[in-house]
Amino acid sequence: MFKKNKEIVAMLLAGGQGSRLHVLTKNTAKPAIPFGGKYRIIDFTLSNCINSGIDTVGVLTQYQPLELNSYIGNGMPWDLNRINGGVSILPPYVKAKSGEWYKGTANAVYQNIRFIEKYDPEYVLVLSGDHIYKMDYSKLADYHKSTGAACTIAALPVPIEEASRFGIMNTDENDRIYEFEEKPEHPKCNNASMGIYIFTWKKLLEYLIADENDPDSKHDFGADILPTMIKKGEKMMAYRFDGYWKDVGTIDSLWEANMDLLNPKIPLNLSDPNWKIYSRFEAMLPQYIGKNAQIIESLVTENCRIDGKLWYTVLFSGVQVESGARLNSSVVMSNSKIGKNADIKYAIIADDAVIEDGAVIGDLPENCSDPSDWGIAVIGKGAVVKSGQVVRPKQMIEPYSGR
Amino acid sequence: MNLFAGIIFSDAYSGNHNMLAEHRTLASIPFCGRFRTIDFILSSLVNSYVDNVAVVTKRNYASLEDHLGGGRYWDLDHRSSGLRILSPFYRTENNTEVFMARGKLDALRSVQPYIKNLKEEYVVLTNANIIANIDFDSVFEFHTQSGADITAVYSHICSRSLSDLLVKTDVSGRITELTYAVDEQEKQRDTALGIYIMKRSLLLDIIHHADEHDYYSFEKYGLIKNTETLKIMGYEHKSFAGIIHTVKDYYDLSMQMLSEDIRKQVFRQDSPIMTRVMDTVPVLYKYNASVENCLIADGCRIDGTVKNSIIFRNVTIESGAVIENSVIMQNSMIGKNCSMNYVILDKNIHVSDYKLLQGAPEYPYVFIKNTKI
Q1: What angle is formed at CA B56 by the lines to CA B58 and CA B127, rounded to 5 degrees?
Q2: The CATH number of the domain where B317 resides is what?
């Protein structure tokens, strides 16, 4: 069939295990983690792609791909079900002589060179599937084209004391990068990499092949490809972004990002008609709010049945909250049941959990005498918290493993 | 392949003025927060593996086409079969005037080629204004096992409409008499829901003979006249059912959806009611929100007081507003300190601050769509 070439192909890295999300990623890849009532983390990147006019996206999967694969499906919710292009799921596969897992982010793209070449693109956009943000990639691409760079990296200012958690770019006065330090101990500036790179494809191809043949390489973009390109004198530019962006790789950051949706001062507007975030969603009954309910500063999704009290809480679809139950500053994922008089504070409850009557989960930070004892309590998928059971702050309950 | 094909009528052909269907079909009246009336019968058919459904339209069916699209949300976007929208207008002999169908038989006559070309042995004729989750597997089994020529589905409900047929059956379940209700009684009676199953060949016969005599009402010519000559069986649908003719019907049925027991009968997990999926965000309840006994669809932003009401998608309710016993359709905006009781706001209505809108339980007041108050 005739295939029109594409100017930009996006490669979305979705294979990470997300081990810092502990019980939440036990059976699920991080990009498939539910977020904000009716989304999954990967919805933001996929929606950004289509909203930016990029309709060819390869999703590189590896860890626990089942849920992610069926979620993405044919890409219809994101308008990525195309005859030419659209979304393709790219797991590692067995080749004629050898088959291997993706050894690193760069190797994952290396193993899919044929997928990219099929569209004969000018540029390749490398994205992560685990960030919450809204960004117009076409502006990044325009900037990349105008500077004639080999690679442009999206950069976000972060507080300097947190800078050692990120890839830090040291730039000259024209934003040209002269040094890229992956998680430096003593950062020289606060220009953090957002994990969003656009490459001129011919250049990237050259470096991917060289990297593959380097036995000392970890085959990672941040640790290997980018520093090598700078060392070889390629033109590398930083593209400054000043919107909302959050890496939701930890329990705390995932909880915070959910709470950010309730804060009108934070510029993460999900209902902007000009930049919608799409998700795969079924038709469900509207939510029913009962006679004893009290809901303040909260997000509630379809098919919920609420008769309890909610403050600063995000509920996914199909959650039931019985009368007398109280939820404060918590996130409850799809189809979980909260029994009568349960008391839940600062917690994340995964899908299909059952919190029986009178159970107590989490607590306010000010009630913990030692601040290091405090943290978000997490209930795994399908877990049962028995009537009267107490789950302390920071405690994690393993997902239900039976069936 | 399923042996049954569905034919849904988007509108009624007699009586009953309904303000909510003035600019749209009866089939596409928004209902229960995010659905349209046709979703109930269409989902029931699809859940019983009927995968060939035609919707026969009459007029103003833009909103219906918009809603149904290619049938994707009911899993009816197949290469062959699937969902068809049939517009029944046809020209008269001298080829000048466009003729409007007077009844179902008129409409069916004009789509006769479609019916002739169907491969299914049986057809289900049904209205679109039925709020129920019908178990068609059981209806089909009943029809084939009872040896009926025609099966009519009925329910023991309270219908105030004079265009509904009341059903009398003998001990075997055969319908011995079908009569129009001549009084508006507030009591439950065995009422035909407007769902008829028969062989396709029988339907073609009825259409053909009706043509000879210029009959146009399926109910009058196909059913009432034939209770002796044809074996017309009654299948009782026992769980919840309602029919929307008038605004009052619409209002009462809407309010009944606030009962969990009724919702469980209509919105069954094993037979979901499907509808077009829109991209809407979860509901945001703000600091002053106070909500009691309500159904609320996604995309709403609520900062006011809402009681015993049904709120559709993307409705904004500002602080100080008090809404009781009302139905507010999608994309409406309710200003600060408004007060409303027993009203139905159609789509996209903007109510500015401090307005007082009042209907009565017996006469819910309707505001037509796209108005500014």
Answers
A1: 95
A2: 2.160.10.10
A295: which chain B residues are within 8 Å (Cβ-Cβ)? 285, 289, 291
- CATH assignment of the domain containing B67: 3.90.550.10
pTM over cut 0.80: yes
Which residues constitute the domain of residue B256?
4-266
> Looking at CA atoms only, how far is residue A43 from chain B in angstroms?
12
Are B61 and B205 contained in the same domain?
yes
Cβ-based contacts of B294 with chain A (< 8 Å): 288-289
Residues 6+ apart with CB under 8 A from A130: A14, A16, A18, A30, A31, A41, A42, A247, A248, A249
Identify the contact set of chain B against chain A, taking CB-CB distances under 8 A.
Answer: 32-35, 73, 258, 260, 263, 267, 272-277, 279, 281-287, 289-299, 310-312
**Which residues on B lie below 8 Å from A294 (Cβ)?**
290
From the candidates A281, A289, A305, which should be mutated to test the interface with B, based on the most B CB atoms within 10 A?
A289
State pLDDT tens for residues A293-310. 999 999 999 999 999 999
Q: Using a CB-CB distance cutoff of 8 angstroms, which residues of chain B are in contact with residue A298?
A: 284-285
Q: Are A42 and A273 in contact (CB under 8 A)?
A: no
Asked if B225 and B362 sit in the same domain, the reply is: no
The total of structural domains in chain B comes to: 2
Residue type, A204: L
Q: Is residue B127 part of a domain?
A: yes
In this structure, is residue B101 part of a structural domain? yes
Q: Which residue on chain A is closest to B292 by alpha carbon?
A: A291
In A, minimum Cα distance to B290 occurs at A294
**Among B257, B281, B291, B327, which would you mutate to test the A interface (most chain A Cβ atoms within 10 Å of its Cβ)?**
B281
The DSSP string of B329-358 is -TT-EE-TT-EEESEEE-SS-EE-TT-EEE
Could you report the per-residue pLDDT of B267-301, keeping only the tens digit for each?
Answer: 998 999 999 988 899 999 999 999 999 999 999 99
Nearest C-alpha neighbor of A222 from the set A175, A171, A166: A166
| B52 and B169 both lie in a single domain | yes
Choose one of B222, B239, B266: the last residue of a domain.
B266
Position B274, amino acid: M
What is this model's ipTM? 0.89
